[in-house]
Amino acid sequence: MADRASGQAIGFLMQQGIENADCLSLAAGFVDPDTLPVDLVRQTTAKLLGESVGKSVLQYGTTPGSDSLREVFRAYLAELENDSLQVESLPLNRIVLTTGSQQLLLLVSQTLFNPGDICLVAAPTYFVYLGVLDGVGAKAIPVTTDENGMCPEALDAELQRLSDEGQLHRVKLVYVVSYHDNPAGISVSAERRPRLVDVVRKWSDGQHIFLLEDAAYRELHYDGPVQPSIFSYDLPDDDGRQHVILSQTFSKSFSPGLRVGVGVLPQELVKPVLDLKSNEDFGSGHLSQNVVATVLQSGAYRRHVSLLQQSYKGKRDAMLAAADEFFSDIPDVTWLHPNGGLYVWMTLPETVPTGFDSELFKRATHTDKVMYVPGELCYPSDWDQRPRNQMRLSYGVLDTEGIREGMRRLASAVRAVV
Amino acid sequence: MADRASGQAIGFLMQQGIENADCLSLAAGFVDPDTLPVDLVRQTTAKLLGESVGKSVLQYGTTPGSDSLREVFRAYLAELENDSLQVESLPLNRIVLTTGSQQLLLLVSQTLFNPGDICLVAAPTYFVYLGVLDGVGAKAIPVTTDENGMCPEALDAELQRLSDEGQLHRVKLVYVVSYHDNPAGISVSAERRPRLVDVVRKWSDGQHIFLLEDAAYRELHYDGPVQPSIFSYDLPDDDGRQHVILSQTFSKSFSPGLRVGVGVLPQELVKPVLDLKSNEDFGSGHLSQNVVATVLQSGAYRRHVSLLQQSYKGKRDAMLAAADEFFSDIPDVTWLHPNGGLYVWMTLPETVPTGFDSELFKRATHTDKVMYVPGELCYPSDWDQRPRNQMRLSYGVLDTEGIREGMRRLASAVRAVV
Known about the structure:
Two copies of one chain form a homodimer. Chain A is an alpha/beta fold and about 425 residues long. Helices cover about 45% and strands about 15% of the residues of chain A. In chain A, the strands form three sheets. Chain A has an eight-stranded mixed beta sheet, with helices on both faces.
């Protein structure tokens, strides 16, 4: 298992971060340190540990996690979905708390995949999840994705192709980051959300294909319409089956250091996921879960998210303004305008590769002192058609001045190699 | 993977706990709620989040965990080993922080075992680890164990037998809970510690066999001599190799709700374990790690452990006194006298089985309202010679009155079925 998990892009990237510590980082996917809820966590912890529940939050929790957080999360999810009835009737046992959403992604993958099985992914997709797929020996197959997210028609066509090749039985999962995705800032459009569920259901005739909706950036929404989740369209089919696994996290919207993620699972996945988690750790941090439950219950969490949205919106605007200022006169450079999340996705001329070994990466890190994430990491590494000329630019960590300066440096590097 | 992880004893046991919630529990391995460091964690968190480091502890940490905790732990380990020189020169990168020590046990197992590989375990052993071995498809083979812990001669003989059968290449690990073990309260004697390392080294000629020293109960030591770890005898062999993986945890000695475990790995295991952990969660809770670092640095942790030792010693004495009071007139009932840990191991007449399906278990839970852990769970389930007439009795959760009452009830149930 360790062999399969080795050599992941995140490792190279972190190594590059260490080796190029003098660079401004447009690479790190960290959240903004200035908006971390230090006072709120201090007050909440003091309150929790000053009450009669104090001892219980320092004791072992249970493998699925704190009942109080799962209950409060269910009510909060009902609000997010604007459809309290369906979500409020969700059995609590379908909600599982994990060590960040990363652990949920892994547990679901360990549950569904045998080595050689297939996962369909957006192109581009979250590169860390490609590493998870490698780790469990699954093959990632890219599905055409545009500014409205993964194309249902392309997903359907790919499943048809796999069926024609007798490979349909190896398909276990479709993975989609549904809101302001990592790496491209793309959201799946309202119109496509139910259609993705329909396609998965259509091809689940002889077997059960799941769709893992990674909604990590759901709450980092700055403008444009608010979409219900893909999960919300997953009504039980004729056999009573459901298909969508919803993954959310408090890392981006609150604090990564607490490591609290949450999954909503179709009933049949609950036991196998908990069996694995029980072997893994008996349950994630109980104190952290109770801190999150308290702020979610009190309304302080919602106020914090509002502040975050304002702050990130300003940083998103700063990055887009700097892109206009420094890149608009470089021919054939384009970028997406995200409504949320932490990333701007930039495409360079096709003749300009951006990978770790490229002239651009070396020039950027050594001369101009700025780091980015090479876009090619965000496609399956065995896909020969993967674009080599893209970059993921994050406005998460730097302040607006740092963002502008980083973009200025990056444009200088790009100009030097174009 | 989920299939292999299913059907573990811990699941049955927790279910029994839920179904028999009206029972006094001598089963739960939880720590004493009255000694949880509520005030200390409250003050420490307030301090941490009031300082300039506040933001960093709410941010992502790194996969191996907080440098500050790893540094303070190294100094603390040097103290524990009474041999500061060797431990203080340990490279920091050999220390890995996990979500409780359970995650370390799993990551090491995922690293070392392919399905069909072999792990040698004490008999009895920690039943949750037997579940981990099932989960990775490894076979557990019991090694004769007495009141001085696993017998080196028996380990040597078992390895000889496996070698004779051409199975030596499948042996990857020897698992030993070295201090006041779960379930029997047994410590490996001083004289056997270096000899276990010698046996592992002797049979590592054609391959590399590791010894996983689970020192979870190391600090719950109440009387008798203090032993250095087995790890401390693991000097590099002629090829510079080391064999012992040391696992410790702050769950038993401080707070399980923080989920902070720590492992010291031979150099060659560092990268594979971190590759797996990176896919799992990018690192465990950063806030929790910093809380532990702060109390370990300030000395507050040591004072807390002293209080714990006094409290548990009183409870251990209460359980042994109650055993004398209620069981000494029942023929052929014996029990061990632990110097530490949380458990008393009791053996009934051979004709009295203790399993979930036994008359005794039903009588105890339904009539006398007391729960225990059936001893047979603590042996490999495919071992046809496993004893069926033992019980693990925990004095962790109940107070001294509850312990006495629990033992009174249990004796009543035993008398009824003998």
